[in-house]
Amino acid sequence: MKYIFSHAGGSIPYLAARSAIIDEMGFIAGGEQRCAAADMFRRIYWDTALAASDPVLRMLRDVAGINQVLYGTGAETWP
Q1: What is the C-alpha separation between 72 and 21, in angstroms, rounded?
Q2: By CB atoms within 10 Å of each CB, which of 32, 46, 60, 79 scores lowest?
Q3: pLDDT band at residue 18, thresholds of 50, 70 and 90?
Q4: What is the pLDDT of residues 20-40, one digit of tens each?
Q5: What is the model's pTM?
Q6: Number of domains in the chain
Q7: Domain range enclosing 39
Q8: CA-wise closest residue to 76 among 29, 6, 20, 15
Q9: What is the Cα–Cα distance from 63 to 2, expressed in whole angstroms?
């Protein structure tokens, strides 16, 4: 299953650094058996709907990598 987070993931890219701190602290039981949050963020997909500003796209590129970013728009078409 592949996940696509809309709107550039909302607050997720901003919280990525905090996730890394939690991974480094190692206080979650069994945490060493799972991948780090940064690795997970680079495996899921993110769309650009309603998130096309330079700062948002730069942060998303840094967190997820450009290959995981998909073009999306906020425009919906209703019949």
Answers
A1: 30
A2: 79
A3: confident
A4: 777 777 776 776 677 788 888
A5: 0.69
A6: 1
A7: 4-70
A8: 6
A9: 18
Q: Is 56 helix (H, G, I), strand (E, B) or coil?
A: helix
Instruction: Look at residue 76 and tell me if it is in a domain.
Output: no
31 part of a folded domain: yes
Amino acid sitting at position 22 = I
CB distance 57 to 8 below 8 Å: yes
Mean pLDDT of 36-61: 85
Q: Does the pLDDT at position 6 exceed 70?
A: yes
Q: Kindly report the length of the chain.
A: 79
What is the token pair recorded at 66? Answer: 């450009």
Q: Which amino acid is at 23?
A: D
In a domain, 46, yes or no: yes
